Input
Amino acid sequence: LLAREDFDAVTLDMQHGAVALAATLRAIPLVLGAGKPAIARIPVGEFATASRLLDGGASAVIAPMINTIEDARRFGAFMKYPPVGERSWGPHAAVVLSGLGPADYFARANGFSLGFAMVETREALGILDRILAEPGVDGIFVGPSDLSIALSGGGGVDPMDAEVDRALDHVLQRTRAAGKLPAVFAHTGERAAAFARMGFPLVAVETDTLLLRAGARAALAAARG
Ligand code: 3PY
Ligand code: MG
Output
């Protein structure tokens, strides 16, 4: 349903969403069938799942909580075929969905399978340039909620905090300077518009649960007068 709305892409969230691997693999062709890229987020540290999502035709994978160089390296390795990484061959659905033959898929997949490393802790901010230097990392996806928890030393969740905004701008500039793609999550449409104005080319807008609750509340408010 969401892929048939005016979104440019749909993200399937295996970290916090209610979808496991089989359901995500079933949803990917539905998103691609609507002519949109299918992006998927893996659970923390489950880098092998990134390869399986690519095998299923995912256009991009987001890896949460990339807090060490080793995290970034391992994620990148599962995203890219040799010689860049260590992805293993078996893209059964992806080859068919791409419309390419196996040889062309192999030759081109590293270029069109985008890996986003999430920066959402102080540790990640501290090694941002080194994460960006990983060849298997095509972009940085910022998580403003976890970042706000980290920057406040566990004091609370406030993705609108001014310190979060400063960190977001820093990540945007460093990522651009590295020639890679900056991306971010926005929990409202207004926040998404602000991020787009800042220069983020990819912004995830709200979640299925937020949209469902907002729709439910609007319908109930209208029904009850
Ligand atoms: C965060 O804000 O921490 C996120 O992971 C957004 O998806
Ligand atoms: Mg997060």
